[in-house]
Amino acid sequence: MSNNQFFKKNTVNFDFKNIHIGRCIRERMEELNVSIARTCKFLNATEPEVHKMFGKKSMDSELLLKWSKLLEYDFFRIYTQHLIIFAPQAGVQYNVADNSLKTILPQFRKNVYTKELIDFILELINTGQKTKLQVIEEYRIPKTTLYKWISKYNKV
């Protein structure tokens, strides 16, 4: 199963607000039928340590990177999707006193919506869980963008 297939299958029911990364890792491991022995060897961990990781809501980024490599899935993307949905718009500067501040860190475009995220939003609307207005207000998706998605992707 490819990265996209795994994500698409789980996106509709996935709770991007309350991420439990250990559960996600366990599900991916089960889907790929990766043995616990291979996992322990790859992570240089014992079986009880690996099982303990499945119970963790969050984990160290270096460890998450190893899991991503082992299971051939970008677990960081789950957090990226959370930021796209729930973080304030880029124009709102809550934490910066001086807007002229520069950073040496790479700058990324915030509003790059994946097909999986679009499907997630449209599913919320199609099932009646959220209205269009709620989606626009809660997820800060521009009205024109939402209506373009509806006309382009909506199968209902």
From TrEMBL:
<dbReference type="InterPro" id="IPR009057">
    <property type="entry name" value="Homeodomain-like_sf"/>
</dbReference>
<protein>
    <submittedName>
        <fullName>Transposase</fullName>
    </submittedName>
</protein>
